[in-house]
């Protein structure tokens, strides 16, 4: 087992309760039968020991947990506006693949790079911990590197045989909520995600799909559909992660080895952090809650990366997707 010192991890659940773990962490290929472990991976799920078992834990509200983290003022950050040209080339390749029938949908990621005037990690972690439900604050850091965010997307919650997940896709400014509610392109993108997610769950138990709703996060809105079932055969968190990740909101449709390889290559070309969009979870005395690691910032020393993805289907338009990417990055900056 590997050990990492001066490290911490946390996850806020939907009820507002936060569990934080402090290092050194032990790494394992499965969670302990009892106790607490954090699960964090790269997007390709290639880490053979994704379970991180803390030396000690703290439970409480976000404010109580935040007291364990120093909260200095956020240093000045110089953000470099992303160049549209690399994304434009990837967008054209994706549209060609769609027209050729190779894919129906995929999610490239554009990353904005920043440079901080001082070590940014503590201030970013404290800012993310302040974000209220329905956002899930999450993060990990060790030494001068780490990541933290506040994501609206639940990968799944597992309590015994009760499984709950969500389809979250379609994005607009809150000011455009009225038009968004009837936007055919955004509804179609959401339905791609919802139907594909349901298909992944077929055979596990009777599926309950709730009506599509609008999730208002202040500056932006998304379409949201809750999906739940009672498992007829128990499955482990690792088995469910491999079944559900990447979600249709972050992955390719159809999800095959070939379409995922295309997505990995586009992400790499556009400088996407390996952990963006990956599962980040908490095993807590037999329950498991996992979120999708989006709406976050990754840092290494003074260097920062702020990624955002957009779902591209046949009806997508380059200018609209570029605008959506900027909107999502700005939502993360607003957390700070």
Topology:
Elements: E1 3-4, E2 7-12, E3 18-22, E4 25-28, E5 36-40, E6 51-53, E7 56-60, H1 62-66, E8 77-80, H2 84-99, E9 109-116, H3 121-129, E10 136-142, E11 145-151, E12 154-159, E13 162-173, H4 177-180, H5 184-201, E14 207-209, E15 213-216, E16 220-230, H6 237-244, H7 257-269, E17 279-284, E18 287-292, E19 296-300, E20 303-309, H8 318-335
Antiparallel strand pairs: 1-4, 2-3, 2-10, 3-7, 4-6, 5-6, 5-17, 8-9, 9-20, 10-11, 11-19, 12-13, 12-18, 13-16, 14-16, 15-16, 17-18, 19-20
Q: Give the distance, in angstroms, between the N- and C-terminal Cα atoms.
A: 35 Å
Q: What overall form do the CA principal axes indicate?
A: globular
| Count of helical stretches | 8
* Rg (C-alpha, Å): 19 Å
Structural class: alpha+beta
List the helices and strands in order: EEEEEEEHEHEHEEEEHHEEEHHEEEEH
Measured by DSSP, the beta-strand proportion falls in 25-35%
> Helical residue percent?
25-40%
């Amino acid at each position: 087992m590997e050990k990492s010192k001066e490290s911490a991890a946390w996850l806020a659940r939907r009820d507002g309760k936060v569990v934080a773990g402090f290092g050194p962490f032990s790494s394992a290929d499965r969670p302990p039968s009892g106790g607490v472990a954090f699960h964090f991976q790269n997007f390709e799920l290639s880490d053979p020991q994704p379970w991180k078992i803390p030396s000690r834990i703290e439970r409480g509200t976000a404010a109580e947990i935040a007291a364990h983290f120093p909260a200095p003022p956020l240093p000045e950050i110089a953000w470099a506006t992303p160049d549209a040209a690399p994304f434009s080339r990837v967008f054209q390749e994706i549209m060609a693949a769609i027209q050729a029938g190779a894919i129906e949908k995929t999610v490239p990621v554009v990353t904005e790079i920043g440079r901080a005037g001082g070590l940014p990690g503590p201030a970013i972690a404290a800012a993310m911990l302040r974000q209220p439900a329905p956002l899930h604050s999450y993060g990990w850091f060790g030494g001068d590197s780490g990541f933290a965010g506040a994501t609206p997307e639940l990968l799944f919650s597992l309590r015994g045989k009760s499984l709950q997940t969500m389809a979250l896709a379609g994005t607009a400014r809150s000011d455009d909520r009225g038009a968004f509610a009837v936007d055919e392109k955004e509804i179609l993108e959401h339905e791609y995600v919802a139907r594909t997610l349901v298909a992944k769950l077929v055979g596990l138990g009777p599926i309950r799909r709730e009506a599509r709703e609008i999730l208002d996060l202040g500056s932006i809105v998304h379409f949201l559909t809750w999906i739940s079932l009672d498992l007829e055969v128990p499955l482990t968190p690792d088995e469910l992660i491999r079944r559900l990740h990447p979600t249709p909101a972050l992955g390719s449709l159809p999800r095959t080895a070939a379409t995922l390889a295309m997505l990995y290559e586009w992400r790499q070309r556009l400088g996407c952090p390996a952990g963006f969009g990956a599962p980040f979870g908490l095993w807590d005395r037999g329950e498991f809650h996992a979120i999708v690691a989006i709406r976050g910032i990754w840092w290494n020393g003074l260097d920062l990366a702020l990624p955002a993805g957009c779902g591209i289907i046949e009806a997508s338009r380059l200018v609209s997707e570029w605008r959506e990417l900027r909107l999502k990055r700005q939502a993360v900056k607003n957390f700070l």
